[in-house]
Specification:
- The protein is built from 11 helices and no strands.
- About 0% of the residues have low confidence.
Length: about 290
């Protein structure tokens, strides 16, 4: 173990000691988990910004989260950091049976693998097959193919994983075009909700505010459900196209932010705040920003 890792483990134990940091001593698995998620996102942000210094710092913060959780577990007699490291070593060896990852790994001689993967795509497929076999070994009569897909994942990422699991047992679209048709179908159902709301507004328009509010409240659960179905269908389409929906939406967010900030800057430079412009004028600025990219 490196001297700095030993040092980090020692610092963590000191922070959690009876006379250590009051805040660190109060933390539990549950209270630390949100910080772990936040640090993981900050790592991703540093990668997207290609900021190597920030990446080094953020990876350190993420490592601290792992050490923190492992120390809480050690105190409760569950496991320790060494067990965490051992678990991931074992998993990597188990899921790369065609490679000798360490001299003592007798299980890594390719036995049982008819044709070792030669490309990244083949390796991913082999990895998923081994994961599925591991799940079957842990399964009981009540298990599902959707078990152990974390509920705390971002919704787009979890939708991708759920649909991918279902696809492994054949519950999937034949092609991306069929997934695109499903998106169109779900969009049509969203439009039906909009049409129903327009009809309700027309019928009750003269019946007072109470009737209009009641119609709007009645439509809300259905529109919530239909928009959710539309988003799930869009994630399925992204998966069929081998597009990471979470990354694609982050890129779209960044593009929108870049263009909108540009609109604000143009409007200010021309002497009129963006909020003072009519929608048609704002749209012209948007198109100007698009053309300038």
């Amino acid at each position: 173990m490196s001297s700095n890792l030993t040092r980090l483990l020692s610092i963590m134990q000191r922070l959690r000691a009876p006379d250590g940091c009051a805040w660190d001593r109060e933390q539990t698995f549950a209270t630390i988990a949100p910080h772990t998620l936040e640090e993981a996102y900050e790592v991703a942000d540093a990668v997207e910004r290609a900021d190597s210094k920030a990446l080094c710092d953020e990876l350190g913060d993420l490592l601290f989260q792992v050490v923190f959780q492992a120390e809480i577990a050690r105190e409760q007699g569950l496991f320790d950091f060494d067990a965490v490291a051992g678990a991931i070593c074992g998993k990597l060896i188990r899921r790369h049976p065609h490679l000798v990852l360490e001299p003592a790994a007798s299980a890594a001689d390719g036995v049982g693998m008819a044709s070792p993967p030669r490309s990244a795509v083949e390796q991913v497929a082999a990895w998923e097959d081994i994961k599925a076999a591991e799940r079957r070994e842990r399964a009981d009569a009540r298990s599902s193919h959707l078990d152990d897909v974390p509920r705390t994942l971002p919704a787009l990422m979890r939708a991708h994983k759920l649909s991918k699991r279902a696809a492994r047992v054949g519950f999937d679209f034949d092609a991306a075009a069929a997934a695109a048709d499903k998106v169109a179908e779900e969009l049509a159902e969203v439009r039906e909700v909009l049409d129903d709301r327009r009809v309700e507004t027309a019928v009750h328009g003269g019946a007072g505010a109470g009737a209009g509010a009641g119609a709007k409240a009645a439509a809300a659960p259905r529109q919530f459900e239909e928009v959710g179905d539309l988003l799930f269908a869009a994630v399925n389409l992204a998966r069929k196209l081998d597009v990471d929906a979470e990354a694609a939406l982050r890129a779209a967010n960044a593009k929108f932010e870049r263009r909108f900030r540009g609109m604000e800057a143009l409007a200010t430079a021309r002497g009129t705040p963006l909020e003072s412009l009519e929608l048609s004028a704002q749209e012209r600025l948007w198109q100007e920003m698009k053309r300038g990219e």
